[in-house]
Write a structure and sequence with these properties.
Elements: E1 5-11, E2 28-29, E3 32-33, H1 34-43, E4 51-55, H2 60-66, E5 76-77, H3 82-92, E6 100-105, H4 113-122, E7 128-134, E8 139-142, E9 148-152, E10 158-160, E11 164-167, H5 168-177, H6 187-192, E12 197-201, H7 212-224, E13 236-252, E14 255-258, E15 261-264, E16 267-269, H8 277-289, H9 295-298, H10 312-324, E17 328-337, H11 347-358, E18 365-370, H12 376-379, E19 383-396
Parallel strand pairs: 1-4, 1-6, 4-5, 7-12, 17-18
Antiparallel strand pairs: 2-3, 6-11, 7-10, 7-11, 8-9, 13-16, 13-19, 14-15, 17-19
Length: 397
């Protein structure tokens, strides 16, 4: 008899360890977010009405853009802890009365069909099943001082992954029984009750994304998937270039804001906002890449709302427009043109700030400076000019 299987995808976290204002589940991997990769993988195995995404309502816009075009039931608000979020998801499925449930972390977009199948198959025999990988490194147990006390045999050690599968009533009862407690994963609840949970073979591609460089590792995995294994309707990418140019004159002051960094100087830059010439030209480049006009159309100088405003707001607006179209920023290159202030000592801080605003790795951002050999208004130290070039990937069918 065919079993009724449901899926709970946990995507309510803030991703604080990821070090980015945008939660990692909404970062793009190829042309899709991590969350969408997960949803589409499970949609091959279960009806969409049995998939529950657990999310943070504060991320509603990010969620809506991520699942656009998918037929899903309303997402379920998460709790303060992961365990509470899972319990919320399980309770939302009670009326569906599934036989089994798979619980998966949205930070694992590399889940494959064969891993899902192995977990489901194991539930015919066991109350719970989880995919794991063997521990290959030698494991040392140490004291707080770092002194090694023993070597732990690795033959019986496994790295746990998700989806973790369970008989629905068993895991729901366990979560309700231990509500208010916190366990490292869902299998630990059954372990606490003395119920058997079996390990099945996991996959390296299914490792969790925790740091920004993990995105690159996962992107490499996506690129290695043979064309025959990719969905026939997979969204491919096209690459767009955008450029920007801006100028601001000097005015009395004691510092300039350049690429989001305060740079001491004998003058400030004059402008309606904070006059950050670097971020203004970056905004124009981003808007240009998607054919969305220029900064003046979106933030007119006549609007007093933007008087003295921090220019990162303008960049974030352009970034959000790109993400709404399912796009991602590949790289950005900014050139500041001036005699003074000296830019070199501040370029690393500027790169880091721009990378933070764009939500990309710092090695995808370049900031450099040049002069005009004392020619023109920059040579006369009347102001600063800047130009930027960006590359943006947008999805195409």
């Amino acid at each position: 008899m065919t079993k009724k299987i449901a899926v709970v995808i946990v995507a309510a976290g803030s991703g604080s360890r990821f070090g980015d204002p945008i939660p990692k589940q909404y970062h793009l991997l190829g042309a899709k977010t991590l969350l969408r990769h997960c949803i589409e993988s499970f949609a091959k195995h279960v009806p969409s009405e049995l998939i529950r995404v657990i999310y943070n309502p504060d991320h509603q816009d990010l969620y809506d853009n991520s699942v656009k075009g998918l037929s899903l039931d309303a997402p379920v608000p998460g709790g303060v802890t992961r365990q509470q979020s899972v319990l919320n998801g399980l309770r939302s499925l009670e009326n569906e009365n599934p036989d089994h449930v798979l619980i998966h972390d949205a930070a694992r977009p590399g889940i494959s069909d064969d891993v899902i199948d192995r977990v489901i198959s194991a539930l015919a025999t066991y109350q719970g099943a989880i995919p794991t990988l063997p521990v290959l490194d030698t494991i040392k147990q140490t004291e707080s001082t770092g002194i090694i006390r023993r070597t732990i045999p690795r033959e019986q050690l496994h790295r746990a992954q998700t989806p973790q599968g369970f008989h629905f009533k068993t895991i729901l009862d366990a979560h309700q029984r231990f509500e208010g407690h916190e366990f490292t994963d869902d299998a630990a609840l059954l372990e606490q009750l003395g119920l058997d949970v079996v390990c099945v073979e996991g996959a390296v591609s299914n490792d969790k994304i925790t740091r920004p460089d993990d995105i690159e590792r996962a992107r490499d995995w996506i690129n290695r998937v043979p064309a025959s294994e990719k969905d026939s309707d997979m969204i491919h990418e096209e690459f767009r270039a955008g450029t920007g140019f801006d100028v601001h004159r000097f005015a009395p002051g004691d510092h300039c804001i350049l690429c989001g960094v305060k740079v001491p100087h004998s003058a400030r830059l004059e402008g309606h906002s904070d006059a950050d010439v670097g971020l203004h030209t970056l905004t124009d480049a981003l808007l240009g890449a998607i054919g969305a006009g220029d900064i003046g159309q979106h933030f007119p100088p006549s609007d007093m709302k933007w008087k003295g405003a921090a220019s990162d707001q303008f960049v974030l607006h352009a970034v959000n427009l790109i993400r709404e179209r399912g796009g991602r920023i590949v790289n950005a290159d900014i050139t500041l043109i001036c005699e003074r202030p000296k830019i070199g000592p501040h370029t690393q801080a500027m790169r880091e700030k721009v990378a933070e605003i764009l939500g990309i790795e710092v090695d995808r951002v370049n900031v450099k400076a040049t002069t005009t050999e004392r020619l023109g208004f920059t040579g006369r130290e009347e102001g600063i000019a800047a130009q930027a070039a960006v590359s943006v990937a947008l999805p195409v069918k």
